[in-house]
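Action item from last week, closing it out:
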Amino acid sequence: MAMTRVRPSRVLFKTRGRPSGVQAPNRDSAVIDWAAYIDGHRVCTDTIADAVRLVRDGRLTPEGDSAGFVWVGLHEPSAGELSDLAEVFGLHPLAVEDAIHAHQRPKLERYDDVHFVVMKTVGYVSSGPGGAEVVETGEIMLFCGPDFVVTVRHGAHGALGPVRRDLEEDPARLALGPAAVLHAVTDRVVDGYVGVADAVMEDIDEVEEAVFSPERTDESRRIYRLKREVIQLKRAVGPLAGPLRNLTGRRFVPAEIKEYLRDVEDHLTRVREQVESYDELLNPILQAHMTQVTVADNKDMRKISAWGAIFMVPTAIAGVYGMNFDHMPETRWQYGYPMILSVISLACFALYRGFRRNGWL
């Protein structure tokens, strides 16, 4: 079935009334913050619709383009909330559906003059009664248009409040438009990758020391958990390389921002190579640990077998003389009982000494 692309005209942007569900941030709303930015300076408005009208009707360059943009930040919005914003900004239904349901791979898509970017966020948190640290993932989606940015965040990680504050302290950079926000968000996400990758590396070092320490410990569960965390990191870090590379070639990105994006891409490449090397570290550590477990089990079996052989001697002799036949050697002899005990003791001592000499005991 053919799909029809639905997009409101720019006239509708100027005359659109207040969208429902996005009047002010509160506990029941997914809207975290919004503002209009004119020449890099924040202009607060009562509603998102007022911010849109301020940018699109109030300030125009001689070329007819907006001199500012609107930035709206949301956290886990409902379908209704995001649909209201989609009408105001003309967001494509397919991208809106992805932003609502999340669980997307990192990607970059273009719908007319709106770019849709998906990135995975990661965090290293303690989980469970034992306090074991695990990698948790979330998502950030960006709708980047000519005069607006809509950020949609899923998960507890990757808060964008600090990003907004840092940008507002640098008006010259913020004046570069939505691309400046796009770079700041990707830079913060990649910095999160670096922090989590370093934390995982510290855990790998600890596991390696525990495996090769003289003390006997069971690190198999921890090693498998680390391998699972490395897989989570790979799924977040690896697919983002393509979208970042494509962003540096987009026309809507100013030359100044392209330089910064290339720097972020370099950091991402370093983290990707670092994460990929973790498998090469964990596999031999796991093999060494399993080898140590096998060796330890073999030692235990040797000890059990040695003691079993020692105890077989008195068991066999006592079993023979316990049959209560009338005609058995030395049963009527006065020193028969001490002699049997001496034979048992000597045989057990000889076996014990032989096993000790061979390292079985």
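Closing note: The longest strand covers residues 114-127.
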